[in-house]
Design goal:
Elements (H helix, E strand, L loop, with lengths): L4 E5 L5 H14 L17 H4 L6 E7 L2 E10 L7 E9 L8 H15 L4 E6 L4 H9 L3 E3 L13 E6 L3
Parallel strand pairs: 4-5
Antiparallel strand pairs: 1-2, 2-3, 3-4, 5-7, 6-7
Length: about 160
Amino acid sequence: MSAKIEIRLIRHKDNNSIATIIQTTLMEFDGNKSGTAFHDKSTTDMYAAYQGEKEVYFVALLNDELIGGCGIKKLDAGNPEICELQKMYILPKARGMKIGKILLDKCIDFARKSDYKQCYLETFPHMYAAIELYKRNNFCTLYKTLGNTGHTACDVWMLKDLNI
């Protein structure tokens, strides 16, 4: 049986599933601590968190099961021309299937159409596969944080020029 992959906008009914995916993945990578998305208020109501102008959250389904997601928002307390790639998490059973690349492409396309000029992200140094995905997609490492994300435990910062 071939895998059926679907990418769609988040729905209110997805809140519990995506919160579990985010928190489970963070625990896997020792990210269940202060200063991470694990404790963000938005993690428990992702649908409401991405209903503003120039923001979106996509979820990925594998054979009709929600297995991950990724979003775009304006970078908090940052340059209004910079968006942030947020909360990109995928369950282990769906990794290696190019779903992360599909989600990333959808988010970058949305960011470009929303007239953002750059895309920023934060992650952990031991999220090797994610960092390699970002590098392959023209994200460059920064040596300081941008904006005010509240994710003080994240110490890898990356930026992509959306004109590339």
